Amino acid sequence: MKKVKFINHYRWRAYPPSLNADLPAHTVDCPECGQRISLPRLKRGQEAHCPRCGHEIVDVGKNPYIAPLAYATASLILMVFVYSMTFVTVTLAGITSILSLPSMMKQLIVSDFGFLAEVMFVLTFGSPLVFLLFCLYVYLALLFDKVFPGLSYATRTLVRLRHFIMVDVFFISTLVAYIKLSSVAEVSLGAAFYLMLALALMLIRTSVSISEHWVYYKINQILGRNAIEAPSEERVCCSRCLYFREKTEATCGVCGADLYHRRPKSLSMSTAFLVAAVLLYIPANLLPIMISSNPTVVQANTIFNGIVYMWEEGDKLIAAIIFSASILVPGAKIVLLIVLNLSAHYGLPANSKTMLKIYHFTDSVGKWSMIDIFVIIILMSSFHSYMARVVPGQAAVYFCLVVILTMLSAYFFDPRLLWDKSRYSKTITDRPSENVSDTQYTYD
Ligand SMILES: [Zn+2]
Ligand SMILES: [Zn+2]
């Protein structure tokens, strides 16, 4: 068993006993590489990382009770303004459209593109809203030391929703659409656009301020239970909350997630989603993704045609952004997921740490593929008159599905399988001197 390397960047101060943030010393299995780690007692401002793969196990923030509440409240207030104020004003051929985010979604619904409206609604409004409300719910319970119903469920949901918040992607998409629009129409960005940048940054702050391992410990403390159990042959470390539970439990008694040593059917589920993504990637690229029309001409563009057209028209920057988001990122993600799945089956082409970096890369870049879809949604809302009209082609739906399926494929892939497969893993585990810092700092 290894001692953990931990970083101390905050001096201990006297806080009221009710706001004690200490996490007692205990043992966890790293959810990324499976390494068993013995964590020392952690206080405010201390974080612990896995000595083998570097994964952050827990970060008891400087203000673990107040910071998430403050960030979530600020985000909710920003959301009210972002969703009620003018987002963008477009004037073309004497017709002015004043667009807010709800009016853009309405436009999609009345034009019979309900699926895209749902995608936009879920990723830019529904997920962040539910995430923030659950965040307030959980942290108010922790702050006031009160038992609220469904605290574990709320924590589990908000942790999962973090992957489905795409306000930042929508913001960048608006910039791309703005450059594209301003060559043909008069465009002015509204207050909601600028506030959206603040909202995107605040949502990221809220998201990183939540340390679920610590939160689950505190929830169980409020419920009068101790989440910490010693590891043994009969116990398994929950992959979500990282506390040891009896193997006989179907769902984890601490967080309520399914209890397993390695995600069951990880490779077959991941491969199935990947195959579906590869199949849909074909119509997504061959069918038109955007159809634009004016009284004299109707033009249907596939993803690639559209990029070539923009490049030739001189919009090289937008062409490069759309190429990266729509072809490079999903293509690379599919190839890397195939490499990861094959590696977990047949052995690794590189060491486990490099493979884990690839896994994190595929997991983090995926959402940026949505840029093209959001650009089309913005263009469509701006050009919906007889003089100029933009509608999404069939490929838009397939493309959305490719993005969602690759996200699911990465989600179901259990990164510990890479370490299990690695022929180096045994040697590294047996060499405790490597990668491990025994330096410990205590502030009492
Ligand atoms: Zn690890
Ligand atoms: Zn659990």
TrEMBL record:
One cellular component (GO) term of this entry: plasma membrane
Q: Where in the cell is it found?
A: Cell inner membrane
> InterPro entries, alphabetically?
PqiA-like, PqiA-like_proteobact, PqiA-PqiB_transport
Task: Specify the protein name.
Answer: Paraquat-inducible protein A
Q: Which family does it belong to?
A: Belongs to the PqiA family.
Q: Which PANTHER family match?
A: INTERMEMBRANE TRANSPORT PROTEIN PQIA (PTHR30462:SF3), INTERMEMBRANE TRANSPORT PROTEIN PQIB-RELATED (PTHR30462)
Residue ranges of the TM segments: 76-99, 119-144, 164-181, 187-204, 272-291, 317-344, 365-383, 395-413
Q: How does it sit in the membrane?
A: Multi-pass membrane protein
Under the heading Pfam families, the entry gives:
PqiA (PF04403)
Principal cellular location given in the protein's record = membrane
Coiled-coil parts of chain: none
Q: Per UniProt, which keywords does this protein have?
A: Cell inner membrane, Cell membrane, Membrane, Transmembrane, Transmembrane helix
Q: Quick check: keyword Cell inner membrane in the entry?
A: yes
